[in-house]
Design a protein that fits this description.
about 350 residues; alpha/beta; eight-stranded parallel beta barrel; four-stranded antiparallel β-sheet; about 40% helix; binds D-mannonic acid; binds manganese (II) ion
Length: about 350
């Protein structure tokens, strides 16, 4: 296992030096943020990022994310050119020593929450999701926490409309088409693709979501058996689906899980949840059981503490402050060490 930490590049308020000071930190998970989706990431930009990491004594072996253009998900004719660009980005990342790319295939939106700063009794705050509140929003005039800067209302409506002809099967076919198009670049560079599950794992505003649990994992492996087609096992995303047995999934897919995002949820009702500190005792997911299942089944990938709370007065990017994620990393280091020694 290699412990990593997400870093939003030079604009991140958390300096690499601080990240390096977290015990057992092998590297950062980052991305080139100023290239429009669909265009090739220039080698120079990638190497500049790598140089910053090198100087801080941190590896840059994991990228999160190389975003997938909506035209690829929609299966538009322009997709072939966009897939060729994606493959070129993979080759450029390979030249910089990248080993794993996290991506997702969610239409229009990535993660969805209804509140980014839900205050807990102890004064900390975290992200939360309330299904009823989301259902009350006007789908023609959507304003979602964290997404208002990404699209204008017209753009958003046009994009949602474009998906009316894309059901779950079609979206999955488009994913397979995309993967088959990039696997040669992965074979050449040795890079593993690690799809992030849908967050939360159910349809939203009539938009299909297809990476929701064990069935989706089986279908993906069957459709694209190449070993470079693998998973980002995000416990918070999958764990919002009450039917997912995370320890069983961790055990079954350990060798295809190239990247693990570990975080905790506290359930409120059937679909609702609030994100919590990483400890097993802080929520409903058995973090210890998940780590144990991963280790016992031979998991050898990258791990990062996923979303943390804002604590100690920090006003960090929602989910991505320094303190609680550092505590999460420390806790996960302890769990991994204990489980490994008892293996
Ligand atoms: C992440 C996702 O912050 C988060 O919620 O887990 O945004 C993740 O980076 C993407 O879905 C990966 O493509
Ligand atoms: Mn995640």
């Amino acid at each position: 296992m290699k412990m990593t930490f997400r870093w939003y590049g030079e604009k991140d308020s958390i300096p690499l030096e601080y990240i390096k000071q977290i015990p057992n930190m092998s590297g950062v998970v980052t991305a080139v943020y100023d290239t429009p989706v669909g265009e090739v990431w220039e080698l120079d930009k990638i190497l500049r990022l790598k140089e910053l990491c090198d100087k801080a004594g941190l590896e840059m072996e994991v990228i999160e994310s190389v975003p997938v253009h909506e035209d690829i998900k929609l299966g538009k004719p322009s997709r072939d050119g966009l897939i060729a660009n994606y493959a070129q980005t993979i080759r450029n990342l390979g030249k910089a020593g990248v080993k794993c790319i996290c991506y997702n295939f969610m239409p229009v939106f990535d993660w969805l929450r209804t509140n980014l700063k839900t205050v807990a009794q102890d004064g900390s705050n975290s992200l939360s999701y309330c299904h009823e509140e989301l259902m009350r929003l006007d789908p023609k005039n959507l304003h979602l926490p964290g997404w208002d800067e990404s699209y204008s209302t017209d753009e958003l409506n046009a994009l949602i409309e474009a998906y009316s002809g894309v059901n779950h099967e079609k979206l999955f076919e488009n994913l397979v088409y995309f993967l088959n198009g990039i696997m040669p670049a992965c074979d050449e560079t040795g890079i593993n693709m690690a799809i992030h599950p849908d967050d939360p794992p159910w349809d939203m505003f009539g938009l299909p979501r297809i990476i929701t649990g064990a069935e989706s994992y089986d279908k993906m492996i069957k459709s694209v058996p190449n070993k470079h087609n693998g998973f980002t096992f995000c416990t918070g995303s999958l764990g919002a689906g009450r039917g997912n047995d995370l320890a069983a999934m961790a055990h079954k897919y350990a060798k295809r899980i190239y990247f693990a995002h570990i975080r905790q949820l506290k359930y409120n009702g059937d679909k609702d949840f609030t994100e919590a500190g990483h400890l097993t005792s802080a929520g409903n997911l058995d973090i210890y059981g998940i780590v144990k299942a991963l280790v016992k089944a031979g998991f050898d990938g990258y791990v990062r503490p996923d979303h943390g709370r804002n604590i100690w007065g920090e006003d960090g990017k929602p989910g991505y402050g320094l303190y609680d994620r550092a505590l999460g990393a420390a806790y996960l280091n302890g769990l991994f060490e204990a489980v490994q020694k008892n293996k």
